[in-house]
Amino acid sequence: MQRKFEVVKLLVDPGIIAIIRTQKAAPAKPIAEALVAGGITAMEFTMTTPNALEAIRQARRAIGERATVGVGTVIDDQDCKSAIDAGAEFVVTPVCRPELVAIAHGAGCPIMLGAYTPTEAQTAHEAGADFVKIFPADNLGPAYIKALRAPLPHLRIVPTGGVDVYNVGHFLKAGCVAVGIGSSLLSAKIVENSDWPELTRRAAALVDAARQARMTT
Question: Which of 83, 87, 131, 184 would be 112's cystine partner, CB 3.0–4.6 Å?
């Protein structure tokens, strides 16, 4: 397992966190390889994906230390512990679960707690979260992030939900340290057709958009 500071670096540079959520057991190895080929260095398998723990194991074996593999949609202690035991190097929750911070940090893993309001975001930060996941971000947009960070500039925000290649730059320019991207990156059609070249193309486009945005910030 990589050290915490190494995982954090992979999460924020280039700052695209692929969210892998599929209806059937995810073909973890080709997905992970395609994402890394496109320049993405962080990916999370959600606990709502069938056989998520095995997918985490397979992805870790496939990519080694070229990227970091984490777990998403964690809502209780057991899922958190099981995913870390399976090899997850970071933990993401959809809601604010402060009690999971100690579990993740005890295993040397950074954790991203979910939040929606300023109070929830600050609560997550005070609980020790390394990052605050603003979710769902699609109806809030970059303007909300900018407004949130005005009084709370210490928050390391990662918006998820509604982020795509067209607005990723706006979110990063608003002060986000990274973004979480799901269906606009890994669509059901790509998985159904095993179209891994298309996944690599989308990943590369997102990475390029993120880097361009940071160069002009």
Answer: 131
* Average pLDDT score, the chain: 97
133 catalytic? Reply is yes
Amino acid identity at 146: K
Number of H helices, E strands in the chain: 10, 8
- Taking the model in full, what pTM does it have? 0.97
Known catalytic membership, residue 89 = no
Task: Calculate the alpha carbon distances from 104 to 33, 108, 110, 217 in Å.
Answer: 26, 6, 6, 32
Q: Which of 133, 146, 173, 192 is catalytic?
A: 133
Would you place residue 1 in the very low, low, confident or very high pLDDT band (cuts 50, 70, 90)?
Answer: confident
Which member of 44, 65, 192, 198 is catalytic? 44
CATH 3.20.20.70 fits 4-211, yes or no: yes
- The domain spans of the chain are 4-211
For tokens 């970059």, the residue is 142
